[in-house]
Every structure is written in structure tokens, then in C-alpha cells.
Amino acid sequence: MTCGRKGHISEQMARQPFTILSPSPGAGTTMKIATYNVNSLRKRIDILHPWLRRHKPDVMCLQETKVQDHDFPLEAFADLPYVINYCGQKSYNGVAILSRVEPEEVAFGFQDGEDQEDSARLARVVIQGIPIINTYIPQGFALDSPKYAYKLEWFCRLKRYFSRNISADKPAIWCGDMNVAPEPVDVHHPEKHVKHVCFHEDARRAYQNTVSWGFVDVFRHHYPRRQQFTFWDYRRPDALEANRGWRIDHMMVTPSLLTHSQTITVDVNARKAEQPSDHTILWADFSV
Known about the structure:
Oligomer: single chain
Largest sheet: 7 strands, mixed
Helix content: 10-25%
Strand order of the largest sheet: 1-4-5-3-2-13-12
Strand content: 15-25%
CATH class: Alpha Beta
CATH topology: Deoxyribonuclease I, Chain A
Radius of gyration: 18 Å
Distance between the termini: 39 Å
């Protein structure tokens, strides 16, 4: 699998102003970072492109792009001031990170010598010294499936990945589609979903164990008990209207960055658009 191919911003767009988080306290700069499971990038261009133009995030992390690298629709974003790093597969998986500056580092996959197919599920960039990790964690399929065991092990590998590549004592961001609703408030009718692969106690325990490496949930930091979903299954036509959803898209930061967190927002409008993904966009502002 070929990964890490890049779309460069034009010279004209590169001259446009932007703000980016600085690792140095007192720099007076900000960063807006967003995450979005597009569930097929080429089908969501008419949602994603206007959102990027309107909200101007410094970094946008995408999951489930479902496009091979040679088919990545770079031309659709050529008028926007983003460098695009991506790694994809046909029909499933795929991650991409759009950033308003060239990352200092770009990497895909665990790079641990094990299954390299996960290159299309994990991306890491470093921007002005800040590592940003974008994950599309396996869904799991069914509790008795090997895919569920694989999901649980994926969390263990991810925790080891954190230890190898970032420091809990320094600013870092981890975001994406985690395919876990951590608490009962994060899923509609939790009593009906105790055997679901995204709410089963083993999945929640594996997720929390990975979080315990050194991350804090930014949404729960700002809204300790608010019920706010990020996913509504479109196989159930009334899911959005009835608010039968899940909070499975998350943004996590290390404690040193949490003190700079200003706001975090779930933009439900992306889910209300025509031909939407079943997920919507989560974004946060940080300042120093």
C-alpha cells in the first residue's frame, strides 16, 4: 500500500493568513481542529468543501475516505489553502489530514511490524511541534467475531503506539472515529445496547485503558453530563429526527493542552445536509 501522498497548496493560497497553535505559552495564537468521518469522501465533497470554506479550520482530520490514493479527489479542494496527506483503500477505511501548513512529520499506520493494512486507519502529523493523531478504529462487527477481538487488540496497539511516538507531558491531540460510546449518556437507550460492539463493557474498558495513557476527553471536560451525539445510523430513517444516536467521534488532548481549550462543538448541520454521512463534524478551538 502506498501512503503519504500529498496535495500541495497553490502559491496564491499559501500566502493567505492562517492561525496555528504554538507550543510556546504566551504566543497569542490559536488553532481550530476538526474531525469528520465522511463515509466516502467523494460522496461528501459538497458537504465538506463548503464547511472548510466557511469555518476555515487549521486542521481537518477525515476518516473512512474509501478512496485509493491514485483516485483521491485533490482537484476538488485545489481552491482551498490546504496541504493534504492521505492513505486510503478502495471501498473501506482511509484517513486524511488537511492542514493549512506543511506538517513537520507525516506517518501512517502503527509501524510496529504487524498488520500493515492499518496504514489506512491511523495517521499522524506534527504541526509546529504538536503531534495530531487521527484514527479510524475498527467497528468490530459482532461480539463473537474475530473482528471484535481485533478491535480490542487495536486499542492495545494504539496505547503502545502513543508510548513510542508522543509524550503525555507535552501537547498532543488524538481524534477521530473511535467506534466506542464511553458512557451510558453517550448512546440512546443504553440498556438496549449492552451487547453492541460499540458499547459492550469490553470495548469501553479497552477504550478507557487507552485513554488512561494520558488523554482527556475535551467534550466531557466542557460538558460533563450533556447528551450530544455525533452519529445517527442512516439505515434507520428516523434516527436523526428522533435523536437516536451515538457519541463515538471524539477529540482527546493531553493535560498540558487541555488548559488551552476554549470551545468544542458538534455541528449537526453536516448530518442534516443532503446525502450526508451518518457521522457529523466535531471541532474545537484552542488558544495560548
